[in-house]
Design goal:
Layout lengths: L1 E7 L2 E6 L10 E8 L3 H7 L9 E2 L4 E8 L11 E4 L41 E3 L2 H4 L1 E2 L6 H5 L1 H15 L7 E4 L3 H13 L4 E4 L3 H9 L4 E3 L6 H9 L3 E6 L6 H8 E9 L24 E4 L6 H12 L9 E6 L4 H10 L6 E5 L5
Parallel strand pairs: 9-10, 9-12, 10-11, 12-13, 13-14, 15-16
Antiparallel strand pairs: 1-2, 1-4, 3-5, 3-7, 3-16, 5-6, 6-8
Helix pairs in contact: 1-10, 4-5, 4-9, 7-8
Length: 354
């Protein structure tokens, strides 16, 4: 089979691979709609360590083509939504009450791209299908469902980690697709004032549609000073969904005492995260710093799909580019890598696969 990925760091392209084996609990999927993510381009540039001959991609809706002998909920021909995080539900780590992202090792449940080939392939493998797949509900467009598997799930996890209360002042730093979903999640969780930090016009428009009350830009000066000018004493909650190694320190500085900083941004392995002790109240300000990876499994995706089905959110507002044909994955990936000014999220409809 053919798949799009990386030969080595800095060298993306089309790979030829053997069809993956389907274990007794597993399934093989033919993708129908996929989306490249900044995590894919991050990996291609070496941000996830050395990887060779790895098919990329971790966001997909597809059709089941094969199931293992012990799979009971799915059969060939079913259209399914595939979470980007597919835990090994028999591993001790999934019993952790905080997140199902860490099964055999930290972030071990993030298997696509990380420890095995991803979804940008003519067929891809899903472990423990009964616990990690969801049938596409009637009435939900595949591209809408596709946004649940990572963008909604990760962005909403930022709001979950922040423990937003009714009326809280919340800042979301970075309003790419994950940040936009974090803003939407914060609004749904009860944020009063919702301050979004970003510059791209289409992202700013979407942030306002998802509930942002204020927009600030680093181009207008230090974002900490701007937040303090708006709030007086700082934000109750800050969600970091973008930025660089300095962003976490800015988030700590703009958070008031007893506040929570929630990070869902991937930093590079070589980054050093630091900030002045004064910004943390010399360690005495009861500011909580949390970082968490996208939880996994079918139940979470079912809940997010229910929010779409019942009109709580329309995640397709973050789709800025639509491509047709499996081969267009290459173009969509390049667009995600270049991050053109009009980009939010591209999707690829793989209608030519059979």
């Amino acid at each position: 089979m053919k798949g799009y990925g990386m030969f080595c760091i800095g060298k993306p392209g089309w790979l030829e691979k053997e069809l993956p084996a389907c274990g007794p609990l597993d399934a093989l999927i033919r993708p129908t709609v996929v989306a490249p993510c900044s995590s894919d381009t991050h990996a291609m540039h070496g941000g996830a360590g050395e990887k060779r001959n790895r098919i990329l991609g971790h966001e997909a809706v597809g059709v089941v083509t094969e199931t293992g002998a012990l799979v009971t909920k799915f059969q060939p021909g079913d259209t399914v939504v595939v979470p980007c995080t597919t835990p090994d539900w028999l591993a001790p780590g999934v019993q952790n009450p905080v997140s199902f992202a860490h099964d055999e090792r930290p972030m071990g449940s993030f298997k696509f791209l990380s420890s095995k080939d991803g979804v940008f392939a003519e067929r891809f493998h899903v472990n423990q299908a009964d616990a990690n797949l969801v049938k596409l509900p009637e009435g939900i467009a595949p591209e809408a469902a596709l946004m649940t598997v990572d963008m909604m799930s990760t962005g909403f996890h930022g709001a979950e980690l922040a423990e937003i209360g009714f009326g809280d002042t919340v800042v979301v730093i970075g309003i790419g697709p994950v940040g936009l979903m974090a803003a939407a999640g914060a609004a749904l969780a009860g944020a009063g004032r919702l301050i979004a930090v970003g510059t791209r016009p289409n992202c700013v428009r979407a942030a306002k549609e998802y509930g942002a009350t204020d927009i600030i830009s680093y181009k207008d000066g230090d974002i900490v000073q701007q937040v303090m000018a708006l709030t007086g004493s700082g934000a109750d909650r800050v969600i970091v969904a973008g930025g660089n190694q300095n962003t976490l320190g800015q988030a700590v500085a703009m958070t008031r005492e007893t506040g929570i900083i929630a990070n869902v941004n991937f930093f590079d392995a070589q980054d050093v995260l630091s900030f002045p002790a004064l910004h943390w109240g010399l360690g005495m300000a009861n500011k909580t710093i949390r970082g968490g990876f996208c939880p996994g499994g079918a139940r979470r995706i079912e809940k997010l799909l229910a929010m779409i089905a019942n009109g709580r959110i329309d995640p397709t507002k973050i789709i800025s580019h639509r491509f047709q044909g499996f081969a267009a994955i290459e173009e969509a990936f390049a667009l995600m890598d270049q991050k053109t000014p009009d980009l939010i999220k591209p999707v690829v409809f793989c209608g030519d696969l059979d």
